[in-house]
Input
Amino acid sequence: MKQLQWKQLAGQERIKEVLASAFVKEKLGHAYLFCGETGTGTFAAALDLAMALLCRSEEAQPCGVCDGCRKVLGFSHPDFHVVMPLSLQKEHKGSDGRITEEGWNEFGERVKERIADPYLLPEFTTLPTIPVDWIREVTHAIRRGTVEKGKNIVLIDRVESMHKESANAMLKTLEEPPEDTLLILCTERVHAVLPTIVSRCQLLRFGVLPPETVKAELITRYGVAEDDSRLAGVTHCGSIGGAWRELRKAQSDDDRYAAGFWSSLSAGDMQAVFAKIDEISAMGDFETYESLFIRLMQGIRNSFLGMVPSSGKYISGDGLPENALSGISSPRPVEELVRNCETAIGQIRARANISLILINFANNIMEILHGKKQ
Ligand SMILES: [Zn+2]
Output
């Protein structure tokens, strides 16, 4: 029996109705333009629809477990094509301007990440583009026809970032798509998409989501605690991906303690350091102590990488505030700082006295940063 069941898409009831009805009646169009803010479900809906069409289950589709579904989820289905904008690096292009093998591998990895979490907002280190080679590869696959029985499905994310060259390579396919082809284009800004593309697609508008839908998804999808006090502040943006990004940015207690502790250490102000040690010790919570030191360690690494040009893609999360490592220009003291964090984490796990751990740590860090024993 044909029946569309949504695996990823949350909310967006009207969109679900329109697509499910067309799916059941086998009356889907050749090309759709899903228009809505990233993180509201455009990519999730496209993924569900693609998977449903390639699913082999006799029950409701997509089942999520059959060979067809698994190949879509693993981005290894020969008839499922995804194109999305990327930050192209030097090593992704050869001297002839064509995409290198390293480039294609990188694209594949990025697409897999996007599929693994269709709500996650992609982050770019440089202005992202859709390489024309990629569009050509896909149009070639469409003209060749399907490899397996079923449809050829092309999903293009953020189609507005296509250059004219890429758009032109795409247009011919849009004008006369082969019978067994479905194109799903996603965009945040429909006005930035070439009118010749828009006019050839059925436009579906994704609305912003109600806060309760965003909240429910943050809890089930990302494991955010139901009573997390930061939830109320982020769910009003109407986008699951947007709210999740805000939440990750919102400072937690251990972030604040880590930043405060580090400021006093880097300022070399021993009185402030002891005040912080008193404050932190008073919490009596080993989990927070541990995440404080993990946060410090990440911050030290990120701050150091931040000083190295073109290391952007290795940085996850933020560095520590206020030029945390000013005066340090070689990796060795940074390694020492990190080692001290690791030692402290080990001691916390062994439930040693937190005041002693902090005093010891502070002394060592002061010596590394300011070159003197306290
Ligand atoms: Zn399936």
